[in-house]
Each structure stands twice: as C-alpha cells, then as structure tokens.
Amino acid sequence: MELLKKIKENIVLAIINGKTKKQQNKKSFYSLKTAENIGILFDSNNIYNFEAVSRFKEELADQGKSVQLLGYSNSKKAETEEKDFLLFHNSDIKISTESINKELNTFLAQPFDLLLVLNNESSLAARYAVNLSNAHCKIGALKSCYNALDFIIEMPEPASIDKLITEIKKYIT
C-alpha cells in the first residue's frame, strides 16, 4: 500500500511540475503593507497551528486585509464545522492532478497578492497548492517548493509556525 501511495505521489508531482512550467502567472512582489488580498496555506493536522494562524489572520484583518485560510490535513475525518478555514487532503487530488474539492479549486484560482505558506514540512497537498496557486507572490519556507516560491525564508528544522510568522513579518513588512 505504501508503495502505491509513493508511486501516485511521484506521478502527481511530475504532472504538477509540468503544469507549473506552462503556467504564466504575472509575478509581483508585495509587502504585508501593500498586499490587500492574502491567502494563507497551513498544516491543519496540529491544533496549535490553527490557533497561531488564526491570531495572524486577525492581526492582518485588523489592518484592513482580506485574508483566506486553506488548511490541509492527513485525515479525511478532520473536524471543520467550528473552524474558519477551507480544508483539503491528499485524497482530494486525483492522479491526473485534478482536484475534486471545489473549495480548493476556488482558492487556487484566486489571484491573491500574497500566498503565505506557513509550513516547512513537505507534503503532497502543500506542494500541490503552492505550485498551482494563481497568487502573484508566494512566500514561505517550504524547501520542496523552492521553484514555485518567489521568496524563501530559511528556517531551522523543525521550526514552529509562530517563528515562521515572525520571520515573514520581519522580511516582508
């Protein structure tokens, strides 16, 4: 089973890389001050991550920013009723790299000024979202997406999401 999962992941990543090369997104650099529309991608497997991201979202919203959250989970059974974010997982991505999650498709199609990737651990779901997002400027510490990110923040392994948020504020304010 693990072998089939690895084969699927490699096929999906190869197709994503091909799509990324063909994608002609207009790239621009935005700071947290100039960006008006911000997307945040984060690992929602850990409740602490959601709490840290929620605080950051509120901080940005208080500055008049429009902020949307997209969490990805390893579990199909994630509880999201009381949470204020969109959720997807690896099973939402078919081997053809088409998403069966309409909310994910809508999020990825939005031309965010900034896409902040608040994660430094590689996962198929995160790599999929970063590579196929229509955001004008993608910023994060995800080393497996170095060719899709416009600004990479070097973080020690493992780094907390709070530390990553602090570094993002320091470099792009």
Q: Can you tell me the CATH architecture?
A: 3-Layer(aba) Sandwich
Question: Which term fits the overall shape?
Answer: globular
Looking at the structure, the CATH topology is Rossmann fold
Number of strands: 6
* Rg for CA atoms: 15 Å
- Could you give the order of strands across the largest sheet? 3-2-1-4-5-6
| SSE order | HEHEEHEHEEH
Largest sheet: 6 strands, parallel
What number of domains? 1
Helical residue percent band: 25-40%
Which regions have little confidence, pLDDT < 50, spanning 5+ residues?
none
Oligomeric state of shown chains: single chain
Strand content: 15-25%
The CATH class assignment is Alpha Beta
Summarize the structure.
Helix content is 38%, strand content 17%.
Task: Explain the overall architecture.
With 173 residues, the chain is an alpha/beta fold. The chain has a single domain, classed as Rossmann fold, CATH 3.40.50. The chain has helices at residues 2-22, 47-62, 102-109, 124-132, 161-172, and strands spanning 37-43, 66-73, 86-89, 114-118, 137-140, 151-152. The protein has a six-stranded parallel beta sheet, with helices on both faces. Helix 4 links the parallel strand 4 (114-118) and strand 5 (137-140). Helix 1 runs parallel beside helix 4 (124-132).
Write the layout of secondary structure elements.
Layout (H helix, E strand, L loop, with lengths): L1 H21 L14 E7 L3 H16 L3 E8 L12 E4 L12 H8 L4 E5 L5 H9 L4 E4 L10 E2 L8 H12 L1
Parallel strand pairs: 1-2, 1-4, 2-3, 4-5, 5-6
